[in-house]
Amino acid sequence: MMAVGAVLIYLAIEKEYEPMLLIPIGFGAILVNLPYSGLMDQGGILRIIYEAGILTEIFPILIFVGIGAMTDFGVLLERPSMLLYSIPAHLGIPAAFLAAYFFGFNPFEALSVGIIGAMDGPTAIYVTSQYAPSLLAPVTVCAYSYMSMIPILQVPLSKLLISKKERLTRMEYTTGRFSQRIRVIFPIFVTIVVGLIAPKGIPLIGSLMLGNFLKESGVVDRLARSAQSEISNVTTLLLGVTIGGTMLADQFLNVTTLLIFGLGLLAFIVGISAGILSAKAAYYLTGGKVNPLVGGTGISAFPMAARTAHMIARSEDPDNWLLMHAMAANTGGQIASVVAGGAMLSLAPIFLGA
To answer: Whose CA is closest to 23, among 235, 244, 234, 233?
Structure first.
């Protein structure tokens, strides 16, 4: 397990795969597996942080506030139709859920594996900490590892499923003008609507939109900056080290962990492919006005997925600026991932009898 921690640190430093989280996770894995460290024993410092920050869901909530404060939903307001691509792009969730259930996970464990398909680390942590705490370490490491490798997955899938002619499609660029009032109302509106649909998801969507509201209100810059920097950074550090602290050798190195990683890969491939195919259908329905590359950004890996789609488009046509359309779909995917997590928390106990 110490070697696994070292590999995560290597990927973070040499490959720059999610270094903000993989470095503390990797270091935490090394610390907790040192003989007689006792860091995760009752009364150990990592155990205390784990119980206070993760089991109470405080850390994921604080991270969502920071993400909201860093997100500009203006690109989505200008292109609301881009939100539609986030629906098929999250089909990786049911795909991984069904596969996990088939392989013998109980329904709530299968849901925790399926949420990897949301491609949103904090959502995966939040749902798994409630439904299957024993799977928290492999689910978290799997989610963040694959999120960091989005370009490695997105580029070949895009070139496999989209023809060169389709990839060269230029989308009309328009900039809408939205008043400050609309930007302020948007996070409140989304919170109310999603909260009514999936009440258990209110902590998720509420914290995300609270962060965005702080940013868009324009009168609490200090709070918005703190949410983006100090609070987010400290929380990420403590979260990462504590997640690494759960990676004990006897609990992590087993067939179940390998299976979760395989199902996570399935979830990502299905989600990205479904998003691309939906945009490909839109390409033909609109007479070639939609570049199918934007469909692959309907996931929640923000903003890496949008940048990757833009990079693919520009590599074949340097004058093809797809970034704002891709960012709109990617932002919509961020909201969709939180809605998916909230729906799981609200509906699973009803249908699964918990």
So the answer is: 244
pLDDT at 354 over 70: no
Asked if residues 95 and 235 have their Cβ atoms less than 8 Å apart, the reply is no
Residue 91 main-chain phi, psi, to 5 deg: -70, -10
From first CA to last CA, the distance across the chain in angstroms is 34
Residue boundaries of the structural domains of the chain: 2-352
Picking from 221, 170, 190, 214, the residue whose alpha carbon sits closest to that of residue 62 is: 214
pTM comes to 0.87
83 by DSSP, 3-state: which? Answer: helix
Q: Are 8 and 29 in contact (CB under 8 A)?
A: yes
Alpha carbon distance 253, 179 (integer Å): 53
Radius of gyration of the chain (CA): 20
What's the confidence (pLDDT) of residue 176? 61
The single-letter DSSP state of residue 41 is: S
CA 75 to chain centre: 19
pLDDT computed for residue 72 by the predictor: 86
The total of other beta-carbon atoms located within 10 Å of residue 218's CB is: 11
150 band by pLDDT with thresholds 50, 70 and 90: confident
The residue with tokens 């998916």 is 340
The dihedral formed by the CA atoms of 226, 227, 229 and 232, expressed in degrees to the nearest 10: 140
The proportion of the chain whose per-residue pLDDT surpasses 70, expressed as a percent, equals 98
Whether residue 89 contacts residue 333, with contact meaning beta carbons closer than 8 Å, is answered with yes
Q: Taking a C-beta distance cutoff of 8 angstroms, is the pair 86, 336 a contact?
A: yes
Would the CA dihedral through 118, 122, 125, 130 be positive or negative? negative
CB-based contact 157:272 (threshold 8 Å): yes
- Copy the structure tokens of residue 1: 């397990």
Question: What is the CA angle 169-272-102, rounded to 5?
Answer: 155
CA 213 to CA 230: how far, in whole Å?
Answer: 18
Whole-number Å distance between alpha carbons of 246 and 140:
10
What's the one-letter identity of residue 177?
A: R
Helix (H) or strand (E) holding 321, with range, is: none
